[in-house]
Amino acid sequence: MKKFAPIIAAFFTISVMSQSPPENSSLFPLSEVKPGLTATGFSVFKGEEITSFEAEVIDVQQVGAIREPMILCRLKGPFFEKNGVIAAMSGSPLYVGGRFLGAVAMGWSFSKEPICGVTPAEQMTGLYEKKVSGGASAMQKNGSPADFGSFLDSLGSRKPLTAGLPETLEAEGFSVSYAASPERKMAAAELLPGSIIGVQLVQGDVQITAFGTVSSVKGEKALAFGHSFFGLGEVDFPLVRGRVSAVLPSMLFSFKISEAGDEIGRMTFDSPYGILLEKGRAADLLPVDILYAKSGGGDAKRSVRIVRHPYLSGMLLETALVLLQEQLEGTGDDLHVLVDSLEFEFDEGGRLSMPSQRFGGTSPSGAMTSYIADCYTLLTKNTYRKEKIARIRASVRSMKGREEGKLLELKARSSTVRRGEKIELEAAFLPYEGERIVKGFSFRTDDLPAGQIKVVAGDNLSVYKRVAQSMNELPGDFQGLKKALGEMPRGGALVFAILSDSEGVYSGNRRLPELPPSLQAGIPVAREGSTTRAAEKILAGPAEGPDTGYFEGLLEIKLEIIEKDAK
């Protein structure tokens, strides 16, 4: 507590100067801004009380590639000499002679003087009529449509557990907290220039919030921040009441330690000059409900609500899951994780239930969270007709003990089998601890064509990727996409599939006799399962073999099937 005493004393010094921000103020023209002007600013430095401060205009500079004007100001007084420009002051309005000059928008790390950049009021107030556009976003590089092929590539990537927030969020100064109550509450609130507010990307049992200051109010609308959020243009993000606990001095950049209160409206537009707010209307969020069975025993129900945005939602879903997993289980790898159920409910009705999955190795939690997020991203960013996801439900189990293994060998008892007989195979595994394990499995050949075949076996995700890449056609519409996802093999067992070995012509599952190229070229491409040509055809599977626990690996062998009456 002692280290905050000087700051609290400074608060009392500022509070003596406290006054209300001007109402319905006119704009101070940029053309009249001159060095030496004295401005009065408003912001919150403790609790929710708006206090005033002084600033001196230094100059007007043209910044950036498009030469945008920015007013440079020096904040006055011992408080700012000690703390410098403070993060979450963004949006704090400045007035000259009762006229709105602009809003504090930026400072400089390691600065020895409290000098800030101020966005001119003339640029900001155009947001009320949306006469400005959204700026370029660092997030838009992730905005390309998701396709089934990239989803397959991501499967089994075993990404390491994310440490805290992704760098893009961390760089923006977001606050992360675990809420005492996940309930959503809408409350009435009076917004004034200088009020502290928060924009939330995730709310519920995890909160990810960016705090800033209201710059201007016009009826039920308001402006804040004085700079872009992510430069996204039209958005629908929750707006919450803010409260400052203390200011933490820092050599890098001092900041307000703030907490989020009730939801009071929404953010509707994001531009280079600030953000547009609307009081009293709730944002449309994606609910995510998770039932955790903890490795130490007991269940924990967690719920979060995530903003709907094509560039952000998948990353935010993964981030929220990572934070919840860290809270409940820590970041150690001495466990394995099962997703017993994963359901996507759609706004138009119906749902997609994914098969259970098992994750182990060095980063089971990271692989689990990225898997759920990748499924969501594929469903919401594919190139087909999309259905709005109304809710995500998942049931996750963490179990003690590292589970890991490697598929070492795949062999058949005989390399040649007559049609109608069983093919007997053995797979050898090396677990994380213990001796080599051999598992046997078999399948019948009644419906397989004579000739060479491949048996592909391995962990569920590797086999699914291998088989999906051999499809004659990948999913061609949204229903096909949902069907392909719903048919993924479950984790924790050996999975195998039977493929053709060489190019041939098939009718159903029967390979036709070898034909000269001139005749093969005359056979039309398959329609509704008729005759087809393929370099590699799926003859059977993927099918589930013996239980194995978590392992990685993919092997294939070639076998020959001969007709029953062949000599």
Structure overview:
This protein has 567 residues and is an alpha+beta fold. Helix content is 16%, strand content 42%. It is built from 10 helices and 30 strands. The chain has helices at 5-15, 78-83, 121-125, 148-154, 167-171, 313-329, 364-381, 460-468, 478-486, 517-521; strands at residues 38-46, 49-63, 68-75, 93-96, 99-106, 115-120, 175-177, 196-204, 207-218, 221-224, 233-248, 255-271, 274-279, 285-293, 299-307, 335-346, 351-354, 357-359, 389-400, 405-412, 416-418, 422-431, 437-444, 451-458, 493-500, 504-507, 510-511, 532-534, 538-547, 554-562. It has a 6-stranded antiparallel beta barrel. Strands 8-9-10-13-12-11 form a 6-stranded antiparallel barrel.
The helix content is: 10-25%
Strand content: 35-45%
Main structural class:
alpha+beta
Shape: elongated
CATH topology-level fold name of the largest domain: Thrombin, subunit H
What layout of secondary structure does this protein have?
Layout: H1 5-15, E1 38-46, E2 49-63, E3 68-75, H2 78-83, E4 93-96, E5 99-106, E6 115-120, H3 121-125, H4 148-154, H5 167-171, E7 175-177, E8 196-204, E9 207-218, E10 221-224, E11 233-248, E12 255-271, E13 274-279, E14 285-293, E15 299-307, H6 313-329, E16 335-346, E17 351-354, E18 357-359, H7 364-381, E19 389-400, E20 405-412, E21 416-418, E22 422-431, E23 437-444, E24 451-458, H8 460-468, H9 478-486, E25 493-500, E26 504-507, E27 510-511, H10 517-521, E28 532-534, E29 538-547, E30 554-562
Helix pairs in contact: 6-7
